[in-house]
Amino acid sequence: MDYPRPERFEASAAAFKSACEVIPSGVNSTARSVSAGWEPYPLFVAEGRGAHLTDIDGNTYIDYLLGLGPMLFGHRPAAITKAVVDYIEQRGTMFALPTLEEISLAQRIVDAVPSVEQVHLTNTGTEGVLYALRLARAFTGRSLIVRFEGMYHGFSDGIYWSKHPPLDLAGPDLYPLPVAQGPGLPPGVDAGLLILPWNDQAALESAFTRHGDEIAAVITEPIMCNTGCIIPEPGYLEVMRRLSAEAGSLLIFDEVITGFRVALGGAQSLYDVRPDLSVFAKGLGGGFPVAAVGGRRDVLQLVDDGVVSMAGTYSGNGIAVAAASKAIELLANEAAFGELRALSDRLRTGLQLRFDAAGMASQVVGVGPLFQVWFTTTPIRSYRDAIRHADQETFRIWWEEMLVRGVLFHPGALENVFLSFAHQEEDVERTLQAAEGAIVAMRARR
Ligand code: PMP
């Protein structure tokens, strides 16, 4: 596979060759790798500004990749950059002692998310999830974790299973087997995991009937964002909430993608379901690395008592705290969220109209500034639906044709399209025009 018009990407192709000499796979995250869809090489970035990005060949794009979510204010948001630079210049970066700003940031998060009574900062979503799971095991005295096929909760050994397993290894639809993300995960960890299909109330009920008193926690994204974008069936999260509470298990919402993005209070505020613990990351930091695990005071009390250690040299560092504080201050402006939702809806419905007019089997599915296109009309409720029904080859052609028209998002059909507060109506208009051209080109190529 190559890019259409590869002469436009020669500098990236050459950079990738050099990168592969000194960086394994040429990139510093699997999500940027050839295997993740950046085939035959990822684009190398020169700079980002607002909703736009320029690669090292000088191509410019309207950016819907947005760093895979964190750039909720676009690139180089002036207010957040200033808050960070001021903090570094006037205060420092890290002290291995607490600062007053950590208190006010924690208070902002507690105020923003009703289920969060206390909150502990981490650096990445992976760490936040790891701590949430450890807390759940410590609190319940149980070890079994329920997770759903097709979700991603970071790359720690205990949970990096069954993200996108090959179906021939993954067992029956109703009783999926844990499938390691790859070699190197410690043997035996899978015994502590119960893998379920998402959006399947009966499967959840059966799991609680069989194992209710062993389940420490159910962990889920409230909107499934690591298999494209899949919306919870009405009532599903509520059932999850009820069953976990009845069994004395904790419900953990992994809001690393949805948190501070679909609403100030995250997806849990949209669906009005209160988890026991939540993990936040991308939307929280305005493009700086910061994450958080928060929730019930009686669970986090275990940290207070010194029972569960939550360590981290960089956790709560000045850069992260300055960035997140400013980001939440900006996000507290509800009117801005309304505008972002309206603009995102225009793009989503505009795309669907154009696909429909061209007679292309498709669904544009999402919530506010977070969506994906499925090339099928079969409803997608779970990972296996996506693998069986969504046409990933058509998605690749869609991606290529949008890329050469100056619109950037991830080439993987199981990733997301993100919008930011920096996107303007004009960007959406240009994107819809690009889509019209892309659709014509796609029909010619099929
Ligand atoms: N949980 C979810 C839902 C995610 O999407 C991700 C990252 N894409 C993570 C956890 C891990 O976060 P990080 O990359 O910050 O470790």
What attributes does this structure have?
446 residues, alpha/beta, Aspartate Aminotransferase, domain 1, Aspartate Aminotransferase, domain 2, 2 domains, seven-stranded mixed β-sheet, four-stranded mixed β-sheet, 13 helices, 14 strands, 38% helix, 14% strand, globular, binds 4'-deoxy-4'-aminopyridoxal-5'-phosphate
Total discrete domains: 2
DSSP strand tally: 14
Tally of separate helices: 13
CATH fourth-tier homologous superfamily of the largest domain: Type I PLP-dependent aspartate aminotransferase-like (Major domain)
Task: Give the percentage of residues in beta strands.
Answer: 5-15%
Fraction of residues in helices?
A: 25-40%
- What compounds are bound to the protein? 4'-deoxy-4'-aminopyridoxal-5'-phosphate
Blueprint (SSEs and pairs):
Layout: H1 10-22, E1 45-49, E2 52-55, E3 60-63, H2 78-90, H3 100-112, E4 118-122, H4 125-140, E5 144-148, E6 193-196, H5 201-211, E7 215-220, H6 236-247, E8 250-255, H7 266-271, E9 277-280, E10 291-295, H8 297-304, H9 318-331, H10 334-357, E11 363-366, E12 370-374, H11 383-389, H12 392-403, E13 407-408, E14 417-418, H13 425-445
Parallel strand pairs: 3-13, 5-6, 5-7, 7-8, 8-9
Antiparallel strand pairs: 1-2, 2-3, 4-10, 9-10, 11-12, 12-14
This protein binds 4'-deoxy-4'-aminopyridoxal-5'-phosphate.
